[in-house]
Design goal:
The protein has 400 residues and is an alpha/beta fold. It has twelve helices and 15 strands.
Length: 400
């Protein structure tokens, strides 16, 4: 029999605040964290608005000179593990599953810059650019001695990390696992994102709006501590939510676009519901990927309607990207935390900047202001470049 997986800790570094409390307050109130970039000199870039992490001091020296992206990752994981109710007395068997778009790009820039200037980079300079080194650094700091897994599933990375970590726990491989998505804004990452031409030129992300014309990217990390229910109960941990089910796949269609019917997204959503053992009538809320790009929002809407059927029109849904931007590898980790907070507080965060709803996006997206609602289950969806799709179903701790 598979173990039930519960969430016992969460951590956030984001453009609307560091710490789950600050993050959730901003998301719940719809306070936008997107602004002119400061840490990155964007004068030579076409796009200059993004979400740089706030409440996190990168000026403070790090003992191991970790890359900013890895420092965000470590900060979120440290909060998720915590030093109070969520603390693990013995971390030797704790797995670490991390997922990212770009990884340690500041280290990569430094390594390549050294080569281009005729320098002689060291072995350490090279290994610091590898995703494995990101996991190594965090595992060493936290004393997490279980399996280490490094993923890169574009913007579905956070949910993918949760899915893999949940499988490790419920199959009994480990009693606990940290799942985290992370990324940092850098010249390297910003150059690549600009080439995709999906960023809005006017600095406002408008999910599902008729005038939407692109997304904006942000940085940070979101982390969740997952445990078997038995392990959590034995150590008296507070249970925040259940990870009921997960679904992952690939469109196998196009690098940057999905089919108009969102077949890949449909299959991931159906897989998550089947894994959770739920039908459409048992879903209380959907947290959309909702990038604010023309194609994504209408395609995702069609996919959700196909999966939830007539029930879709009566379910409140939202996208928080108008508030926090698109967190790259951290995006769906942010959304997972928002989903869990919605279950815990009975408050659905607003879809901001939705003023004139696109007729092709005809669901209830909770526009403008947060809404109180009884939410016991949430379906959180994500998708990314390369055709990656990942969905997770969360539920209240006493759902079963």
């Amino acid at each position: 029999m598979l173990d039930e997986v519960v969430v016992t800790g969460m951590g956030v570094v984001s453009c609307v605040g560091t710490g789950v409390g600050a993050f959730w307050e901003s998301v719940r109130e719809g306070r936008c964290g997107l602004r002119e970039l400061r840490r990155l000199n964007a004068d030579d870039f076409s796009y200059r608005v993004g979400g740089e992490a706030v409440g996190f001091d990168l000026e403070q020296p790090d003992e191991d000179d970790l890359d900013p992206a890895v420092r965000f990752l470590l900060g979120a994981c440290e909060e998720a593990v915590g030093d109070g109710e969520a603390a693990l007395e013995d971390r030797c068997d704790c797995a670490l599953v991390i997922s990212t778009n770009f990884g340690a790009t500041a280290n990569l820039e430094r390594f390549l810059g050294n080569i281009n200037s005729g320098g002689q980079p060291s072995e350490g300079d090279f290994t610091s650019t590898l995703l494995q080194s990101d996991a190594d650094a965090v595992a060493a700091r936290l004393g997490a001695g279980g399996p280490k897994v490094c993923l890169s599933l574009s913007c579905a990375s956070g949910n993918a990390a949760i899915a893999v970590a949940a499988d490790l726990v419920r199959t009994g491989r480990v009693p606990a696992a940290l799942a985290a998505g992370y990324d940092a804004i850098s010249a390297y990452s910003w150059s690549g994102l600009g080439v995709l031409r999906v960023m809005t030129p006017d600095g406002v992300v408008r999910p599902f709006d008729a005038g939407r014309n692109g997304t904006l990217f942000s940085e940070g990390s979101g982390a969740l501590l997952l445990e078997s229910r038995k392990h959590a109960e034995e150590r008296g941990a507070a249970e925040l939510a259940i990870v009921l089910g997960c679904g992952m796949n690939n469109n196998a269609y196009h690098m940057a676009h999905s089919r108009e019917d969102g077949e890949g997204t449909q299959l991931a959503l159906r897989a998550a519901l089947a894994d959770a053992g739920l039908g459409a009538e048992q879903i209380d809320h959907v947290n959309f990927h909702g990038t604010g790009t023309k194609l994504n929002d209408s395609t995702e809407t069609r996919a959700v309607k196909a999966v939830l059927g007539r029930r879709a029109g009566g379910i409140p849904m939202c996208s928080i990207k108008g508030t926090i931007g698109h967190g790259m590898g951290a995006a769906s980790a942010f959304e997972a935390i928002a989903s869990i907070m919605t279950v815990r507080e009975g408050i659905i965060p607003p879809t901001v900047n939705l003023l004139e709803q696109d007729p092709e996006c005809d669901l209830d997206y909770v526009p403008g202001a947060a809404r109180q609602a009884s939410v016991r289950t949430v379906l959180s969806n994500s998708a990314g470049i390369g055709g990656c799709n990942a969905a997770v179903v969360f539920a209240a701790p006493d759902f079963r």
